[in-house]
Amino acid sequence: MANIKSAIKRVKTTEKAEARNISQKSAMRTAVKNAKTAVSNNADNKNELVA
Questions:
Q1: In the chain, where are the structural domains located?
Q2: Higher pLDDT, 49 or 29
Q3: I want to staple 38 with a disulfide (CB 3.0 to 4.6 A). Which of 10, 19, 45, 46 is the partner?
């Protein structure tokens, strides 16, 4: 555990950013997966999902 005040703050900030990045990365993966599926199945809304 960090002892210096700025290091403690940096740990908290990093944890928040990491949680945000994980959720954003997951959402991006889902969007890409849905777009690829729509294109391969020639879905009607594929232009919306790819754009």
A1: 17-50
A2: 29
A3: 46
